Amino acid sequence: MTYVRNAWYVAGWEQDLAPEKPFALTILGDRLVIWRSVSGAVHALEDKCVHRFAPLSLGRCEGEHLRCMYHGLLFEAGGKVAEIPGQDLIPARARVRSYPVVVRHSWIWVWMGEVEAADPALIPPAVGFDDPDYILGCGFLDYQAEARLINDNLLDFSHLTYVHAASFGAGPEFAASQPKVTPLERGVRVERWLENNHGSGNRKSEQLIDGWSSYDFLLPGVLLMWSANYPAGTAKRLNYAPPPMEEAIAGLNFTSQAVTPLTDKTSRYFFSWGPHRQFGDDAMRDHMMGIAGMAFAEDKVMIEAQQRVIDTTPAQDVMPTAHDRGVTLFNRLVEKLSDAATIKRREAVG
């Protein structure tokens, strides 16, 4: 699988991480143990004791340390062995890899690449549960499919017309119209006006409106989208430029979604969604999450079926369509950064 290593990957929801209870997670094929220490700090290590390779995720938290519960080796948060029961000498190689971790926007972010390159400024600016403006619900789904297929799905909303006709109530306009796609330094931006319609899903309107949506799809696979309703004619009045958020008349909401590759053919898909407090409440959030549950299950059925077809047919090139601009730009960015990292590693070795 080709993914950018020098990026922050979502490992879980902060609120799901119980104090002093390690949990195991595989990201990009690396086995990790993640835990919150007695001080509240969150740490991530390679989930493999240096002694007999027992998983540290079955270990016990002791202050800021983690003890392997097979033969008792005690690990510091940085991965170094601090104690070997019955042995005074600690070999220099008695350590496991440590991964940089940051808790932000209610997500646990783990840096999977070169430690010296781990820059918290590269964490995508999601909206978390600590944001006072939004009332959010959240969840995640595990896929028997590679993450790239989920990324492709999120970069091409023309599928809404067909996959989500029942859940989001999407009409033909998503497949019949093209969004504006703009390259970003670490992703792409997708913007779309849908004029003179009655909206769909939680954005239904009795009167004609212009619907706006804009999302950034950022490395390694994070979608950040806000959308809202505006009076009919707004799109033309603004010459199809992005509208001021504060002028929305209804339907203002935000969604954060993150795709985390677990292994070559398995992924975890995290999502949150909810209304702005000015236009919704807990009941609205719960209604939206019900729609989301139905819609994301529809995606899962389609993408896992797609993976099975790919796995059982000879390799062949995809035939792109006009809707694939965002997909193409993002995948080229992934390949470019992955190739650059490979060249840098070879130069360091050579």
TrEMBL record:
<keyword id="KW-0503">Monooxygenase</keyword>
<dbReference type="GO" id="GO:0051537">
    <property type="term" value="F:2 iron, 2 sulfur cluster binding"/>
</dbReference>
<feature type="domain" description="Rieske">
    <location>
        <begin position="8"/>
        <end position="110"/>
    </location>
</feature>
<dbReference type="InterPro" id="IPR044043">
    <property type="entry name" value="VanA_C_cat"/>
</dbReference>
<keyword id="KW-0408">Iron</keyword>
<keyword id="KW-0560">Oxidoreductase</keyword>
<keyword id="KW-0808">Transferase</keyword>
<dbReference type="GO" id="GO:0032259">
    <property type="term" value="P:methylation"/>
</dbReference>
<dbReference type="GO" id="GO:0018489">
    <property type="term" value="F:vanillate monooxygenase activity"/>
</dbReference>
<dbReference type="Pfam" id="PF19112">
    <property type="entry name" value="VanA_C"/>
</dbReference>
<dbReference type="InterPro" id="IPR050584">
    <property type="entry name" value="Cholesterol_7-desaturase"/>
</dbReference>
<dbReference type="InterPro" id="IPR036922">
    <property type="entry name" value="Rieske_2Fe-2S_sf"/>
</dbReference>
<keyword id="KW-0489">Methyltransferase</keyword>
<dbReference type="InterPro" id="IPR017941">
    <property type="entry name" value="Rieske_2Fe-2S"/>
</dbReference>
<keyword id="KW-0479">Metal-binding</keyword>
<dbReference type="GO" id="GO:0008168">
    <property type="term" value="F:methyltransferase activity"/>
</dbReference>
<keyword id="KW-0411">Iron-sulfur</keyword>
<keyword id="KW-0001">2Fe-2S</keyword>
<protein>
    <submittedName>
        <fullName>Vanillate O-demethylase monooxygenase subunit</fullName>
        <ecNumber>1.14.13.82</ecNumber>
    </submittedName>
</protein>
<dbReference type="GO" id="GO:0046872">
    <property type="term" value="F:metal ion binding"/>
</dbReference>
<dbReference type="Pfam" id="PF00355">
    <property type="entry name" value="Rieske"/>
</dbReference>
